[in-house]
Amino acid sequence: MTLSEPIWLHVCDVDAIPRLGTRVLPHSSGDIALFRTEGDNVFALRDKCPHKGGALSQGIVHGEKVTCPLHAWNIDLRTGEACAPDVGCAQRFPVRIDAGEVYLSFDETMCGEVGEVDEAGAEATAAV
Ligand code: FES
């Protein structure tokens, strides 16, 4: 059995994501939403609500949760899990912050084309 090393992709500066806001990282497998909390933690989830596919990047960030704009499910940013009584999970991507820069981890199953982070002008520096 072989364990592959995670692939860390630089996506943007932390400040490219507004506090209590979001940015979208386009990916050929589907958009990834980046969330920044009031305490400057950054989380990344597939930009697709586990309920009926609402864009989580359009939701409201509070604490370490986001409220989906369509039907107000609360999604835990740390796990991607819907908060009870709702049940479901948005795909989560590990995030690392190093010297104010945000990196996402992709495994081999996530290879694809990565676009630029929206609006802020921050660029992804590599394709995985
Ligand atoms: S699509 Fe998100 S709560 Fe319904």
Provide the gyration radius in Å.
14 Å
Give the strand line-up of the largest sheet. Answer: 2-3-4-8
Q: Tell me, briefly, the overall form.
A: globular
Mean pLDDT: 87
- Count of β-strands: 10
Helix and strand pattern: EEEEEEEEEE
Span from first to last CA?
23 Å
Percent range for β-strand residues: 25-35%
Attached small molecules: FE2/S2 (inorganic) cluster
**Helix segment tally:** 0
Biggest sheet features: 4 strands, antiparallel
Residue windows where pLDDT falls under 50 for at least 5 positions: 120-128
Structural class: mainly beta
Helix content: under 10%
Domain Rieske: 9-104
InterPro entries: Rieske-like_NirD, Rieske_2Fe-2S, Rieske_2Fe-2S_sf
Protein name: Nitrite reductase small subunit NirD
Keywords: 2Fe-2S, Iron, Iron-sulfur, Metal-binding, Nitrate assimilation, Oxidoreductase
SSE topology sketch:
Layout: E1 7-13, E2 21-25, E3 32-36, E4 42-46, E5 60-62, E6 65-67, E7 74-76, E8 92-93, E9 95-98, E10 101-106
Antiparallel strand pairs: 1-10, 2-3, 3-4, 4-8, 5-6, 6-7, 9-10
FE2/S2 (inorganic) cluster is lined by residues 49, 51-54, 68, 70-71, 73.
